[in-house]
Amino acid sequence: MTARIKSWSSRNLSFAGRITLINSVLVTIQAYWSQMMIMPKKVLKSLEAICRSFLWKGQALFHGAGVVAWENVCQPKSAGGLGIKKLEEWNKAAICKYIWAISNKQESLWLRWVHSVYIKKQEWWSFSASVHFSFYWKKMVALKDHIKNIADSAEFQRLKTKDQLVRYGIQVNERCSLCDVQNENGQHLFFECSVASQCLLEIESWLKWNARAKSLPQLVRWIGKAKISKFKKQVYAAAIAALVYSIWRTRNAVIWQENSLNSNRLIEDTKWSLKLQISIFLPKKILNVDKDWFYAL
Q1: C-alpha dist (Å) from residue 17 to 11, 13, 54, 80
Q2: Could you give the residue ranges of the DSSP H alpha helices within 117-207?
């Protein structure tokens, strides 16, 4: 990178020209390694320092403050920045493709080696790195855990559960309207709540579905990874969606209409809704064993 900059320094480059060279040349120089491994923060900071020096002074090495904070410079142009990529974020985004490949068990020599040496028969999203693992592998597992936490929290933040209402300053009884034991939040409602958990067990038993997953994110991931027919995956996914809807509707009825809780009706409504929707959109091409299984429900 410094060699490239030295060859440019003698030229009369405009400010816009420097930005173009940073995005099209300097950032892409480290792109190869960023797609291969999670790079140490010290290395990424050094690379950003080179880009920052070239932007403000047209030199590879410059010690001093820039005109604008680098954090603001790296914002999108629509947000008032210059659209320069943040190397650390780009590095993490590039590594995510390996996390996704491991999750989906895509076929490649490297993935077979990873499953044989590291993961073995463990579930990837609950896998934790040993202290004896390499630096790069531990960093990848840490990034995987970070992504999982973001995904899990994002799924529930959309729901205006009681914990969300309290954050908005609304005074409500924080106890779960279904079990009346613990405070209500998205994670509790789907499916840590004793009532919701029992409903889930009833639906799983009805579908003859032996899933060890007990939370909503785990169930979704289980369906995606399960080695079952496409039709069964669709039915299981529809069952979870129908159950979540029924639980949320029942919860709202208990709160706003002061209805009494009837878990049996909740389960029966879920079953009826699921069978009706699947019957309407039943695929034309379906295995006989799957068809018999569904009609026997």
Answers
A1: 11, 6, 11, 18
A2: 135-157, 162-167, 186-187, 194-207
Q: How far apart are CA 52 and CA 59, in angstroms?
A: 9
In angstroms, the CA 160 to CA 295 distance is 37
Question: Comparing C-alpha atoms, which of 220, 78, 40 is closest to residue 148?
Answer: 220
For 67, phi then psi, to 5°, come to: -70, -40
d(CA 118, CA 40): 22
Please tell me the distance from the alpha carbon of residue 125 to that of residue 223, in angstroms, as a whole number: 13
The answer to whether position 99 is within a domain reads: no
Is residue 109, in this structure, part of any structural domain at all?
A: yes
Q: Which two tokens stand for residue 139?
A: 């960093």
What does residue 82 show for φ and ψ, rounded to 5 degrees?
-105, 0
- 294, two tokens: 């569904």
Q: Which domain holds residue 131?
A: 105-152
What is the pTM for the complete model shown? 0.56
The answer to whether position 66 is within a domain reads yes
pLDDT (tens digit, 9 = 90+) per residue, 237-284? Answer: 889 988 998 999 899 989 888 888 889 989 998 998 888 878 877 777
Q: Name the helix (H) or strand (E) containing 54.
A: helix 41-57
Q: Are residues 80 and 168 in the same domain?
A: no
Asked if 109 and 51 count as a contact pair (C-beta separation under 8 A), the reply is no
DSSP helix/strand/coil, 175: strand
Mean pLDDT in order along the chain per 10 residues (297 residues): 66 79 79 81 86 80 75 81 82 83 78 86 82 86 80 66 86 90 90 93 92 83 83 89 90 88 90 84 83 89
